[in-house]
Structure formats: C-alpha cells, structure tokens
Design brief:
InterPro entries: NreC/VraR/RcsB-like_REC (IPR058245), Sig_transdc_resp-reg_receiver (IPR001789), Tscrpt_reg_LuxR_C (IPR000792), WalR-like (IPR039420)
Organism: Nonomuraea guangzhouensis
Largest sheet: 6 strands, parallel
Strand content: 5-15%
Protein name: Response regulator
Number of strands: 6
Radius of gyration: 19 Å
Number of domains: 2
Number of helices: 10
Keywords: DNA-binding, Phosphoprotein, Transcription, Transcription regulation
Mean pLDDT: 86
CATH superfamily of the largest domain: Response regulator
CATH architecture of the largest domain: 3-Layer(aba) Sandwich
Strand order of the largest sheet: 2-1-3-4-5-6
Structural class: alpha/beta
Length: about 220
C-alpha cells in the first residue's frame, strides 16, 4: 500500500449496491476502487490478480459465499485485509467471518464515514467492527459464552445445526419435519442451505462432515 492511496476491491452480487458503493468510495481522496466482483469465486480471482490493499466482501453471494471467499483470499494473500459488509446480524455469521480472517465487519446500514473508517483502519493493520457488532463481540467474550461452547459449523443458524444433527443421525426429511414440527418444504430448504454452506454435494457427504464434528452420534 502506498502512503497516498488505499486500493479496494468490492465484492457484492447486487449490482446497484456494488456500483453505488464503487462511485461513493471512488469519490473519497486516498481511496481507489481497483475492481469489483459479482460473487465469491470472482472475488478470490480478482484479489489474486489485482492484489488490492482491502477487499470489501458481502457474505451471501451465489456459488462461493463471502465467508469461504474471505478464507481463500487471506490464505492466498495474507497481506490483503478483508472487511465484511453484510445484511446479516447473526452471531454465527459474524464469528465465521472472524475465523475466516476478516479484519472488519460492518452491517449494510453503515454510513459512508463508517465504511471509509473501516477500510482505512484495516489497511493499516487494525481490526474494526461497527458499533452494534462491537457490542456483540464484547458480550461474547465477557458474557456467558465460553470456548468450550463453541459450536460446530458456526456458519449455520441454530435451526440449520439442529437439522444437520438429525440428518447425521440418519433421519429422513419427513422424519425431521415431524420431529421439529416443520413443513417438509421448510426442511428441504434448510437442508439445501446446509449443503451450500458446508460446500458438500449430497446428503452422504454432509453426514460424514457432521459426524466428524460430533453431531448425530447419540441420536
């Protein structure tokens, strides 16, 4: 990074938001938008190609999600700082992003000053979180949560983790729907989301991953 300019790559699958943010950041002295990406896979490729100082990364993108994209970018180029900018307020998403190597986490309601401050901070080696997110991080480390309670697959919601545990126990979707008082369609949708988040091809692979993490063994 030069002393004058922070080069930024923007990754978001919504073109209106992505292009609007590019225009906004491009108008800020000291920030250059080096490129954009429409999904996680493209973000990884563009980061390797452009070697920006900072990647501003959405989480929910088609194909490769922002969490896995962050993990790959940081693994390939540890000097690149990633700021996650997302609609997701879920603790699981927040901590998955941190584990993946993100140095910043903002909600999409953040204003221009907050976004610029986050980009500048992470470019200089700091970690930064939006005010609401920072409070939750503090609550996690000072509150009731402990390392021993760290859940498997933090990218999953509590409901998805519950369903995965039943999948790992060999239950069918119909049995899971009955056990959890859910509609079969809701279970199917959750199972599809689980497969996508775990990057597995089918139920058998999901069961192996889940059982390796200790899920479903006692059911």
């Amino acid at each position: 990074m030069s002393d004058e300019t922070i080069r930024v790559l923007l990754a978001d699958d919504h073109p209106v938001y992505r292009d609007g943010l590019a225009v906004l950041l491009g108008s800020i002295p000291g920030i250059e938008v080096a490129g954009t990406a429409a999904n996680g896979a493209e973000a990884v490729e563009r980061a390797a190609e452009l070697q920006p100082d900072v990647v501003v990364m959405d989480v929910r993108m088609p194909g490769l999600d922002g969490i896995e994209a962050t993990r790959r970018v940081v693994a390939d180029s540890p000097h690149i700082a990633v700021v996650v900018l997302t609609m997701s307020e879920e603790d699981a998403t927040l901590f998955a992003a941190m584990r993946a190597g993100a140095r910043g986490y903002l909600l999409k309601g953040a204003n221009q000053a907050e976004i610029v401050r986050a980009i500048t901070a992470v470019a200089h080696g700091e970690a930064i979180f939006g005010p609401a997110v920072a409070r939750r991080v503090a609550d996690f480390f000072t509150g009731t949560a402990t390392g021993s309670d760290d859940p498997a697959f933090p990218q999953l919601t509590p409901r998805e983790r519950e369903i995965l545990s039943l999948v790992a126990a060999g239950r069918s979707n119909t049995q899971i729907a009955s056990a959890l008082f859910l509609s079969p369609k809701t279970v199917r949708n959750n199972v599809s989301n689980i497969f996508a988040k775990l990057h597995v091809a089918d139920r058998a692979e999901a069961i192996v991953r889940a059982r390796d993490a200790g899920l479903g063994r006692s059911s």
